[in-house]
Each structure stands twice: as structure tokens, then as C-alpha cells.
Specification:
Radius of gyration: 21 Å
Number of domains: 1
Length: about 240
């Protein structure tokens, strides 16, 4: 109701002010849920599960509780991150940008595509875009080295069939600002599985940066086609 106040001065003046108001309610909810969980825990297995808070969370809840890593700069960057809430796991794409930019893209059209080159070094380009007609596309490319940590990320993407976009604001990186889910088409999941299979038996013939530059050039060539799809999809939704 404060957000709907007639006079602008009577409304919360920032997202941080709203979060401060909500914090006590969130804490009270956590206490109530904790009591309810303890009441339901009537077996040893349930008691064991309660000792691991992460085990009771969904991947989406885990993303909302995430904090920006200390080893990452406070800057507009994109990087992949595996998220685990046993027995579930998923690959997430973590993004940092200004808060105003995040707000503008809350209802954006989402797009994803994967490109791969096995030679001279196995690598996948994971393309994500969020499109707003007023601001244009925000490209979120991520390169996955299939001979390194990228193999696990690509495997999770192919198995789960969707991934969370986890947004952090530069102005307040201590907590996640928003989470969006992006679906992967079944044929893209199948392509990922095939590329993973091929990468296992291939011996790299060059440095990863060589393949990265090849994929980057292909991405630049495809951008106009992707943008055309995004604009067409937005027009269809508006109709």
C-alpha cells in the first residue's frame, strides 16, 4: 500500500527500503516454517534432512538466496555457476548489471541458443538474450570449455532442459535481485548431448582461445538473425 501512495514522497524511495520493510516478515516466516518442519519430522531420515537446510530448498529458492561471490568483480559480467540442492542440480547463468537495467527487463522476451566447435578445441558458446523493445537486446554469451569445467555445465543444461538467470544489481550485490527461468528446446538438449559425447574422444589440437574466437565470429554473424526473431516474437505476444 505504501508503494501505491498518492504522493511520491510517501512511497518507499528505493528497492532497498522495500527490502528493509519486508525483512522482519521474512524472518518471522522462517521461524514458522522451522517449527512446522520440526513438527513433521517424525522419522530419523526426516530429522537428518532438517540438519541440511540446502536439502530442503528448490533450485529456484537457492538462487534467490544466493550472494555475489567474493572472488568476482563488481562489474557487468556473466558467468556460469552450478547450483546444487540435493538431490537436484542445475546450471545457472549469473549476471550483474545496474538495478535500473534489471527492472526494465523483468518482462523481456528470453532467447537461448547453443553453438559448438569440436575442432581445434571442444567448446560450446551458450547464447542467452533478453529483449526489451525500448532498450533492445541484452546479449549474455558464455563460453563452455568441454575439456574443463564447462563440461559439467553443459551436462547439466542437457539433462535439466532449462536454467535460471540469476540477476545481481551493481548497486547492491549482497543479494540476488531477480531470477528468470529460460527453457531449452529438446533438440538443443540433444545437440548438447551429442557434442559432449564427441568431446570425450577428441584430443585438442589448439588452445581454447582459438575455438573461442571462431565461435565469437559466428555469433556476431548470427546476431541480426536472432534480433529479427526476438522482434517478431515480441510483436506476436503484443497481438
Amino acid at each position: 500500500m505504501d508503494c501505491l501512495a498518492k504522493l511520491p514522497g510517501d512511497r518507499p524511495q528505493s528497492v532497498e527500503a522495500i527490502l528493509d520493510i519486508l525483512a522482519p516478515f521474512e524472518q518471522r516466516l522462517d521461524v514458522v516454517e522451522g517449527v512446522q518442519r520440526r513438527q513433521r519430522a517424525s522419522s530419523p531420515s526426516q530429522l537428518a534432512a532438517l540438519k541440511s537446510p540446502i536439502a530442503s530448498l528448490s533450485i529456484d529458492q537457492l538462487c534467490w538466496q544466493a550472494a555475489w561471490p567474493e572472488n568476482k568483480p563488481i562489474a557487468e559480467i556473466v558467468f556460469p555457476q552450478p547450483m546444487r540442492a540435493p538431490p537436484k542440480a542445475a546450471a545457472a547463468l549469473w549476471v550483474m548489471m545496474p538495478q535500473a537495467d534489471i527492472v526494465k527487463r523483468l518482462l523481456s522476451t528470453r532467447y537461448n541458443q547453443f553453438l559448438c566447435s569440436i575442432t581445434p578445441h571442444p567448446m560450446v558458446l551458450w547464447i542467452t538474450a533478453v529483449y526489451d523493445p525500448g532498450s533492445g537486446p541484452r546479449w549474455l554469451p558464455c563460453y563452455l570449455d568441454l575439456k574443463s569445467r564447462g563440461y559439467e555445465i553443459a551436462s547439466l543444461l542437457s539433462e535439466v532442459g532449462h536454467y535460471p538467470l540469476v540477476f545481481f544489481a551493481i548497486e547492491s550485490p549482497q543479494r540476488c535481485s531477480n531470477v528468470m527461468t529460460v527453457t531449452i528446446a529438446p533438440y538443443q538438449c540433444q545437440l548438447l548431448r551429442e557434442w559432449l559425447q564427441m568431446s570425450r574422444s577428441y584430443t585438442s589440437a589448439a588452445a581454447p582461445v582459438t575455438t573461442k574466437n571462431l565461435l565469437k565470429a559466428e555469433f556476431e554473424r548470427l546476431k541480426p538473425q536472432i534480433l529479427q526473431k526476438l522482434e517478431g516474437a515480441k510483436q506476436t505476444l503484443q497481438k
